[in-house]
Design goal:
- A two-stranded antiparallel sheet has the order 1-2.
- The chain is of the alpha+beta class and about 60 residues long.
- The longest helix is centred in the last third of the chain and has 15 residues.
Length: about 60
């Protein structure tokens, strides 16, 4: 699913087994106790890309 603001993650990136997509409209919180095992860590650049996508959703737009 290629949508504006989503971030495509490559296989092997952050130890992922296959290509994955961060869908910024479907991000939600989970309690840390619900997580089983550590998979990997995203690079700071990828985290910034995800935050940029979230900002697209939360920043006010010009009405003009």
């Amino acid at each position: 699913m290629r949508r504006y603001g989503n971030v495509l993650l490559n296989a092997k990136e952050a130890n992922l087994s296959k290509r994955s997509v961060v869908i910024v409209t479907q991000i939600f919180t989970v309690d840390k106790s619900q997580l089983d095992e550590f998979i990997g860590k995203l690079s700071p650049n990828r985290v910034l890309q995800i935050l940029d996508g979230i900002n697209l959703l939360t920043m006010p737009r010009d009405a003009g």
